[in-house]
Amino acid sequence: MDRNPSPPPPPRDEDEEVAGGDCIGSTVYSKHWLFGVLSGLIQMVSPENTKSSSDDEEQQMELDEEMENEICRVWDMSMDEEICVGILGNMACFQEICVSISSDKNLGQILLQCLYDSDPPTLLETSRLLLTCLSQTEVASVWVERIQEHPAIYDSICFIMSSSTNVDLLVKVGEVVDKLFDLDEKLMLEWIRNGAVQPQDQPQEDSEEQRVFRIVPCVLEAAKQVRSENLEGLDVYMHILQLLTTVDDGIQAIVQCPDTGKDTWNLLFDLVCHEFCQSDDPPIILQEQKTVLASVFSVLSAIYASQVEQKYLKVEKVDLSLIDSLIRVLQNVEHCQKKPVNSESNTEETKKSDLTQDDFHLEILKDISCEFLSNIFQVLTKETVTKGLKEGQLSKQKCSCAFQNLLPFYSPVVEDFLKILYEVDKTLAGDLEESFPSLKVQT
Question: Is 250 helix (H, G, I), strand (E, B) or coil?
Fold first, then answer.
């Protein structure tokens, strides 16, 4: 006989607890009740409880009937799509079960179809399950191939990123996209190109210059939604943009459309100049921001390098703000890389791996920052340098920090900058040249 789901009433004297967060997902099922039923079931089937005396037989039957009703409710609950996928997601955390789930082609098709659902909790649990499977090297390629065979998944994910206000869902979907792009460049290229739309009134010969890409605006919209609520989520979406810049089509997807290029530049510029690593922030905060800043600077650098071709990107007006942010980041990197003098010997080994990982990410941030700073230094004019000295972005201390990090890999850039500086402030230029004798500037 078919039964409609019938969630149990909240336990006595616990109505406030249920209303305050005891529910499972968006359902009205109580976690407390579910755990109680499962615990009771486990006790019933325990070896020591499988035998009962004749005196207790009538009481045991009553208990069995009550438990049967509770189990029926659990069965009803299991018919909820969100909970079903959530259970599979938890099971997939075990490698053998993950392999078993992934090898079932029919189940795989059903799970991917859940991405077309309109229910946020179901989408969240489905994304969580996909991410778990994609993180298993044994089965990751199976899921990538399945997703490639379902082009509609691209549209569904783009729709979620561009329209959802559910931060948890956006973060998890972003992690799935980030993992997919990291695993398979071919799929990333397909998604970039699948989002290209040619205006109907545009002549065929001009189509290459007028394509509109969907993937970048969707990523940007999701990034704006998670920006103020979830730093890790913002980190994920910035890394997606960074992955896009690793291929020419991805860079074009960002800069070719004026609106998309401006939107990307403005969002990232605002992050580095007004939100991350500010002058009143403690240097140690860079440890929390190092990966997201590395992605942001990498994307900004790619856009900046393309500004010669993109006339709408008049970024020369913001060079000084970027210089100030980049040098501050380099100063904080130096501070964070200083090893503590005193440390307990019994914790050195446990901290060693963490320190190495932190240093690795800091070095990446340093390299990206130096490359970006050198690109900006190459186009500085005498007027901009004069303004920078006046406003403080190019003080002696900041110039010394820039030189310290740019040398020796960017020596020609530093030498050219020093030539301009001699025309503006000979005293400062001379002091810097004396501090860095490797520089040979023709004065």
Answer: helix
pLDDT digits (tens, 9 = 90+) for 271-313: 998 999 888 999 999 999 999 999 999 999 999 888 655 565 5
Whole-model pTM over 0.85:
no
Please count the helices (runs of H) and the strands (runs of E) in the chain: 22, 0
Whole-angstrom Cα Rg for the chain: 29
Neighbours of 266 (CB within 10 A): 11
Residue 36: closest CA among 70, 75, 80: 70
Q: With CA atoms as reference, report the closest residue to 251 among 170, 184, 305, 327.
A: 305
Rounded to the nearest 5°, which phi and psi values hold at 212? Answer: -115, 125
Reading the block at residue 404, the tokens are 């310290």
Asked whether the beta carbons of 259 and 214 are under 8 A apart, the reply is no
CA–CA distance, 174 with 371 (Å, rounded to integer): 27
**Separation CA 105–CA 45 (nearest Å):** 34
Instruction: Identify the three-state secondary structure at position 104.
Output: coil
The contacts of residue 421 (CB under 8 Å, 6+ apart) are: 385, 399, 428, 429, 432
Maximum distance among all alpha carbons in the chain? 108
3-state secondary structure of 67: helix
Q: Are 244 and 302 in contact (CB under 8 A)?
A: no
Cα gap 107→92, rounded to integer Å = 13
Q: Which residue has 């900041």 as its token pair?
A: 398
